User: Which sequence fits this backbone?
């Protein structure tokens, strides 16, 4: 008892010292980085958390983009992590566009807003690999329950904007002067939640996973309310329309993080008594749990009606007034229910088919589904394009923060240890584009 009480001041001192060291490290990185869009963003991260508390103050000038939006056409609004972030840092020209950008081309969208974020490449290896979490507060509360937690990790959680922060940044923008014909939202979350939760005791990681999924639907309700109240409200809708636009969201299934190159090469060694095998097992289970719960919750959320509109105490027209009115009834905006709908894309199927095709081709085999009978599109599905130097043959290769960039990024399934290469991102954008053009939503599948 007395020993526990005496350890509390020491723990507070260690926590305070760790946070101070983290802030000092950030300032040091900021001062040493070259002038670029990346360094500017990182500077605003460090300053924003101490000056105005805004984790998204370093974003691009979306206000200027929003002023040009509106009118006929499709607007794509993107929330998520590095898998949909369109930021290209110095030396990363071969990275290519995000799959959301390819999607925009496929559906001929007239405008696009991207709020996704990534860990700046220059921050590694000063900081371990990380990315956008669904909820920073849920993530912090979850890892603080583990015996493996260290104070430094908690201090790092505020580096990137979570889903709530990204959505609030979008809601805070001025509304377009003329609303778009339709707005489609993209959500890419969960990868880094599972990546981190897998190193915790499984019950703790499971609880964090479940809470993160609940947070996604909480934030979707907030986004839906903004959509129906502001963007497509009675004040902005043409009353000649008899149908309301759908609130449509694109959500990809989660890909197992243990299948990425960085899981083995860049993941910090687990402290005892945890092990690589235990964490890998946790990640596989949590990925499966995430996808199973998500598909069930998505289906339930789509059919759950919005809360009833507040009652209006206006005098109702009499039967005689209705009979004498020769004009046909036109539903008002309040009479129209804006339906929720989801494009639920099976991302793991595409990636696993590519990996299996490559493996079977290497062995001269094929399976009953036809995999192995074709020709692999990639030189490697294991090593990323951005890799450590091997041997002396480095002529003509770009040095990227101590890593080398391959000469043919299109030939690699992965761009770096945690992100996809340009060729497969184009394939994803095309497949989701086909879904959007064919309106292959959950509702449409249920009706057919």
Assistant:
């Amino acid at each position: 008892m007395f020993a526990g009480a005496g350890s509390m001041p020491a723990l507070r001192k260690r926590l305070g010292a760790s946070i101070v060291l983290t802030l000092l490290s950030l300032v040091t990185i900021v001062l040493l980085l070259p002038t670029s869009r990346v360094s500017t963003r990182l500077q605003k991260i460090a300053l924003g958390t101490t000056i105005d508390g805004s984790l998204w103050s370093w974003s691009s000038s979306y206000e200027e983009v929003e002023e040009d939006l509106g009118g006929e056409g499709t607007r794509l609004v993107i929330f998520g992590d590095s898998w949909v972030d369109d930021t290209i840092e110095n030396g990363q020209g071969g990275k290519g566009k995000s799959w959301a950008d390819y999607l925009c081309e496929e559906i001929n969208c007239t405008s696009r807003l991207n709020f996704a974020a990534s860990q700046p490449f220059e921050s590694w290896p000063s900081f371990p690999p990380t990315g956008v979490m669904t909820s920073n507060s849920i993530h912090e509360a979850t890892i603080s329950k583990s015996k493996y937690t260290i104070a430094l990790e908690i201090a790092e959680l505020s580096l990137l904007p979570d889903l709530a922060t990204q959505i609030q940044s979008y809601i805070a923008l001025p509304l377009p002067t003329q609303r778009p014909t339709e707005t489609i939202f993209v959500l890419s979350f969960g990868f880094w939640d599972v990546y981190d939760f897998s190193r915790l005791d499984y019950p703790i990681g499971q609880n964090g996973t479940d809470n993160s999924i609940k947070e996604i639907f909480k934030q979707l309700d907030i986004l839906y309310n903004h959509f129906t109240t502001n963007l497509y409200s009675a004040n902005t809708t043409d009353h000649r329309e008899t149908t309301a636009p759908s609130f449509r969201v694109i959500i990809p299934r989660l890909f197992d993080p243990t299948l990425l190159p960085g899981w083995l090469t860049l993941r910090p060694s687990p402290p005892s008594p945890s092990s690589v095998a235990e964490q890998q097992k946790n990640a596989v289970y949590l990925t499966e749990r995430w996808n199973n719960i998500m598909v069930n919750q998505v289906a339930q959320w789509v059919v759950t009606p919005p809360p009833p509109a507040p009652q209006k105490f206006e005098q109702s027209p009499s039967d005689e007034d209705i009979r004498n009115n020769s004009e046909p009834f036109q539903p008002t905006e309040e009479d129209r229910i804006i339906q929720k709908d989801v494009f639920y894309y099976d991302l793991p199927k595409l990636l696993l088919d590519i990996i299996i095709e490559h493996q079977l081709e290497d062995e001269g085999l094929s399976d009953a589904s036809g995999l192995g009978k074709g020709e692999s599109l990639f030189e490697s599905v294991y090593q990323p394009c951005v890799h450590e130097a091997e041997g002396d043959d480095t002529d003509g290769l770009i040095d990227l923060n101590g890593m080398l960039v391959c000469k043919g990024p299109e030939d690699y399934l992965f761009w770096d240890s945690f992100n996809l290469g340009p060729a497969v991102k184009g394939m994803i954008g095309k497949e989701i584009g086909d879904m959007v053009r064919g309106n292959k939503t959950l509702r449409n599948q249920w009706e057919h």
Notes: The radius of gyration is 25 Å. The chain has two domains: 16-303, 346-447. The chain has 15 helices and ten strands.
